[in-house]
Amino acid sequence: MIKNCYSELVFEEYDLVDLLMSTGSLPDGLLTKNITVADQFLDHVPQFFNPTPETISVEEYDKQHQSNWYMPEEYKTLDIAEYLLDLCSTDEQLQRVGKELLLYQQKGLFDLLRYLKYLVDTMKQNSVIWGVGRGSSVASYVLYLLEIHRVDSIYYDLDPEEFLR
After folding, report:
1. Phi and psi at residue 65, in whole multiples of 5°?
2. Where are the alpha helices (H) located in the chain, listed in sequence order?
3. Residue 48, phi-psi category: left (phi > 0), alpha (psi -120 to 50), beta (remainder)
4. What's the pLDDT tens digit per position in 92-122?
């Protein structure tokens, strides 16, 4: 298995055989290359996809895949702005969330926020522990409300522009 320039994991034939032998199955949508095994083998495994050709720029790749988040329909259709505003209990919180939501919207990141909500819910359901936060992400009160981190950026007077530049 290798990573291409877009950080996609690309599986070769021996990777698929190892995965199949160790788990008994293969997930749908694996990116593959150099597959020469018999068609009978491929008839018993899920659909494969070819990796992205490395002829497009990383920026174009990001643009093509920005809204391609794999999550349940309930999260895809979630009104993330309403959800976050409902979590606010003070005017200060409402103003801060409103300001940040405008920044997220300008950058086209609402799908990312929906995915983060799904990710946190999934981690909670599976008792996965994650960190308290790091770097400039702790400046976002929206990410605090989504429980991505545990640093109240209003309390510490952190500027959301530090994260969303």
Report:
1. -105, 0
2. 13-23, 39-42, 58-65, 73-76, 80-86, 91-106, 110-125, 141-145
3. beta
4. 999 999 999 999 999 888 999 999 999 999 9
